[in-house]
Amino acid sequence: MDYLVVLIPLLPLIAAAIIGFGHLFDKIKGREDEWITVGIAKAAIYVSCITAIALLFFDLLGQNSGAYSVGQWFASENLIVEINFITTGFSVVAAALFSIILVVITRFSVNYIHKESGFHRFFFTLSLFSSAMFSIVLSGNAAGTFIGWEIAGLCSYFLISFAYDRPVAAINATRVFVTNRIGDASFILGIGLSFFFIGTINWNELNATAELLTMPTATVISLCFVTAAFAKSAQLPFTPWLARAMEGPTPSSALFYGAVMIHSGVFLVILLRPIIEQAPLVMGLLVVVGLFTAIYSFIVGLTQTDVKSSICFAITGQIGLMFLECGLGLWELAMWHLCAHTIVRGYQVMTAPSLLHYVHGNPMKPVSSSMANNRWLYIASLQRFWLDPITDRALVRPIRGLGHDLDHFDKNIVDRAMGAPKSSGNAISSLNQLEQKILGTRPDYAREEFVRSNGVVGKLFEWIANGMSWFEERLVLRGIGADSVNIGQKLGRAANTFEQLILKPRYLVLFVFVVLMIAASI
Amino acid sequence: MGILSILLLTPLVGIVFLALTPSNKSTQIRFLANFFAAVAFLLSCYLVAIYNIGDGGLQFEEQYLLNPKLGTAFALGVDGLSLPMVVLATLLTSIALLASFNISNSVKGYHISILLLQFGMLGVFLSQDWALFYIFWELTLAPLFLLIGRWGGVKRHAASLNFVLYTMGGSIFMLISLFAISQYMPPHSGTLMSAMSEAAQLMPREEQVWVLLGFLIGFGVKMPIFPLHGWLPLAHVEAPSPVSILLSGILLKMGAYGMLRAVVMLPEATLMLQTLLVSLALIGIIYGGVLAWRQTDLKAMVAYSSVSHMGVIMLGIATLNQTGIFAAVLQMTAHGLVAGAMFLLVGLLYERTHTRNILDYSSLVKVMPRFALFMTVTLFAAMGLPGTIGFVAELHAFIGGYQQWGNLMMLMGVGVLIGAAYAMRTIGMLFTGPVKPQMREIEDLRVYELIAATVLVGAIMLFGLWPAPLIELSAETVTQMSNIISQRIQ
C-alpha cells in the first residue's frame, strides 16, 4: 500500500493551489465565499489524514516496503533526484500524528478566523503548510525534505506577518525568516556534503551507508543537519526567534510553534540517527545545546508575564530536553516525547487565549525564595539573557554597517561610473510638468528622457543605442523598405511609359520593320 | 489517409464550413473556427502521444506522386524537429482565435484567413518535399497580406506590402538555390528532401557556399536575421494582435526551421560560412536588444526583442555541434511561447487603453493583478530567468557557443544583460509608480483571455521547471542531425 503516501502531501497542495488561484482570479472572495475555501481546505486535510492513518495501519501490519518512488525529478551525471517517499517507521507515525493535529487546527481556525480580512489567505497558507510538513516527514530524499523545510519557513513568514499592516508584525516576520535562513544554509550545505562524500541524497541510502563513514565525515555531515535542526527548533543560540513568532494568529502559533513545525528539527535528528551515532562529537553537542536550552528556557520562563511567551519558553525547554535525550542515545524516549509534546502543547496553545478564564481562582505557585532572591538571575531572565541584543551587536550591526559602507561606495563611485537605474515611476516633479500634464500635451523631453542614461557605461550604451537607432531608421526601415518601394514605383512608371509608347501604331510598324530587316540580313 | 493528412486537412475542412456559413452569423463563425482549431490542436497532441521518441528519423510518412513528369510528390512526415513546431502552430492558432473575439468587421473573412494561414504553416512543417514546402511557404503570404492589410492599424497598407515584398524577394533566392541543387539530381527524380540532401553532397564546395547564401537570404528574411529584418517592426506593430501572435510565434520559426534543414543539407558550406553566421547572430542579439530598449511602443519593443531572440537560434545553428543545434530547437519552442504570450498580453492591454506608449502606463498592478502576474512571468522568460523555458534554451545556446568559440560568448552575455534591462524597465513602468487617473479603471483579464494566457504562461513555467519531456521529444532527431553534420565536415 506504499502508493498511498503520494496523496498525503499532494492533496493539501492541490487545495492550496485551488484556493490561491481562485482568490487571485476573483472566483473566491469576500465573506460569502468563505464556505468554499473552508470546504476545500477541510476536505483535503481530512482525506490526507485518513490516508496517513491508513498508511500507518498498513505499516503496522507490515505491508509497506519502506520506500515508494514516483519517478525521477531530474538527473545530472551522478546526481539523481527522485520524487520518493519513506513509508515505514517513525516518519509514518509522525505523519499520522501531525495530520490529526492539522485536522484539529484547521477545524478550529474556521471559527477563529471567521470574518477576518485575509480569511482566504490564511487557509491558503495553512494548506500549503500542511503539504510542506508532510513533505518534510515523508520525503525519501534530502531535496524533498528541504523543499518542505523551505516552504514551511515561508508559510511561517506569511502567518507571522498575517496582519502585515502592523509594522511590528512585518519586522518580526522578517527577523524570524532571516534567523531560519542560517539553518537553511547549513541544511543545503549538508545536502551538498552528503552528495560529495557519499554520492547520494536519498535518506535510506545515506543511513544504510552510515556505518562505513569515517568519523570526521560523519561529524561534518551531521553537524550541518544538526545546525539546521537547532535553527528550526529554536535551540540556543537561535531561541529568541520563537518569542517573536508568536505575533501571528493563535491557530497558526499552535500549529507552527506549538505542535508541528517546531518539531521538525527533532524529527530530522531522529531521521539521521545512524549518521549522528557515528559522530560522538555531535552527540555531545546535542547534549550540551539541549541541556543549556532547557535551563535557559526554564529560567527565562519564570519571569514571563503573558501566556504566549511563557508557553513559548516552555516549548523550547521541552524541545531542548528532546535534543538532550537524542544526544544521550535515548532515541525511543525522544520519539515518545515528541509525540506526547505535540498533542499536549497543541491543545495548550490553542486554549491559551482563554487560559486566564480556566485558571481563575487557582493562582500560580510563587518561585522558591532562594531563586527569587537571586537578583542577577532575575535581571538576566527578564532580559532573556540579552540574546537578542548580543546578536544585534555581533551580527546585525556589523552587517548593517558593511551594507551602509557598500551602499555609499555604490552610490558615489559605482553608480556614477556605470549609471544608476532611474526610478521607473514617471512622477510629476515640477510645476511646469504638471501644467503641461493638465494641458494634455506630453512634453517632448519625455521621449528623450526615456532613452537617456547616466554614468560612463550608461552614456556609452546610450550612444550605441542612438547610433543603432539611426542606422535602423535610415537604412533598414527607410532604405530597404520605403526606398525600394519608391524605386520600384519609378521603374514601374517608366515601364508603363515605355509600354504606352511601344503600343502606338507608328512604333509598332517601326518595330516590325526592324524585325524584318534583321531577318532579311540573316 | 494518414494522421498527418488528416491534421493538414482539418483547417481546410474548417474553411469549407466557414465559407458555407452566412457572413452575418458571427457567433456561429467564431464557434466553427475555434472548433476546427481545437480539433487540429487535439490531433497534434494525439500525434505527440503516438510519436516514438526513440526513433529520430521521419515518422508517419505519407507519399503520393503529384507530377510524374517532374517527380514531385505530396510527401509528409514529422521528426523531432518539426513535431514541436506542429504542436506550437496548432496551439497558437487556437490562442489567436481566442484572442480575436473583439474583431468585429468582416468576421468571416478574418477567420477564413486565419485557418488558411494555419493550413499553410502546418504544410511547411509537415512537407518532406522541397517543391511542396515552397508551395506552402508562399501560401502563408496570401492570408497574412490580407490579415495585416485589412484588419491592421493605421499604416497597415505599407506594412503588408513591405512584408510581402521582403518575403517574396527572399524566397526567390531560396528558389534559385533549390534549382541549383536540382541540377545535380538524376532527371525525373523529384524534389524529396532526403534525395536533395544526397544530391547536395555531389556539388563542388564553392557552389555549395552560393547555395547556402541563397538559403540564408531566403530563410533569413523570415527569421529574421540582422540586416533583413526591416519588415518586422512595421508588420508587428500594424498587425492586429492575434496575427502578431501567429507572426512571431510560428511564422518566424518557419525561417529557423528551413535554415536548420538547409544546414543539415550543406554542412561543409556552413562550416566555411561559420564566421559570417556567428557574427550575424551576435549582431542580431545585441542590435535587437538595444533597439528594443529604445522603443516606447510596446509592440515594437516585443518585435525587436524577437530579432534578439531569433539571433540566439542563429547562434545555435552556427555552432554546428549537438548542444548548439539543441539550443536552436529549444529556443524555437521557447520563443514561440514567450513571444506569443507577450503579443497576446500587449494586445489585450491595447484593447483596453488604446495606447501602446509605455510612458502612458503606470501602477497597473493595482487594477489588473492577473495581467501583471502573467506579463511579469512572460517578461522574466524573455530575459531568460531560471525556472522559465527561456533559461533552458539560452543555457544550451551558451554552452554550445562556448564549446565552439569560447570567450566570444561574452557578447551573448551582453545581449542577455540588455534583455534584462528592457524587460525589467517594462515591468517597472507598467506596474509600479504613481496611480494615473486614466489608468484607474481598466478591466482585468476576462475568462477567454485568462484561458489563453494561462495555457501559454503555464507552458512557459512547466517546461522551465521540467524541461525533460521537451528535450526527449527532439533528442533523437538532434543527435541524428549532428551526427550527419559531424561526419560530413570531417
Characterise this structure:
The complex is a heterodimer of chains A (522) and B (490). Chain A is mainly alpha-helical. Chain A folds into four domains: 1-140; 171-355 and 372-382; 386-417; 444-521. Helix content of chain A is 75%, strand content 3%. Chain A is built from 23 helices and two strands. Chain A has helices at residues 4-24, 34-60, 90-113, 119-138, 142-160, 167-197, 203-208, 215-232, 240-245, 250-259, 264-271, 273-277, 280-302, 307-328, 331-350, 355-358, 369-372, 375-382, 387-418, 431-439, 444-450, 456-503, 505-521; strands at residues 67-76, 79-86. Chain A has a two-stranded antiparallel sheet. In chain A, helix 13 packs antiparallel against helix 14 (307-328). The longest helix of chain A is centred in the last third of the chain and has 48 residues, at 456-503. With 490 residues, chain B is mainly alpha-helical. Chain B has a domain at 273-490. Chain B is built from 21 helices and two strands. Chain B has helices at residues 3-20, 26-50, 82-98, 107-126, 130-139, 141-151, 156-182, 193-200, 205-222, 231-238, 241-265, 267-272, 274-294, 298-319, 322-353, 364-367, 369-382, 389-405, 410-431, 447-465, 468-488, and strands at 59-67, 72-78. Chain B has a two-stranded antiparallel ribbon. In chain B, strand 1 (59-67) and strand 2 form a beta hairpin. In chain B, 57% of the residues are buried. The model of chain B has no long low-confidence stretch (mean pLDDT 89).
Q: Quick summary of this structure?
A:
The complex is a heterodimer of chains A (522) and B (490). By secondary structure, chain A is mainly α.
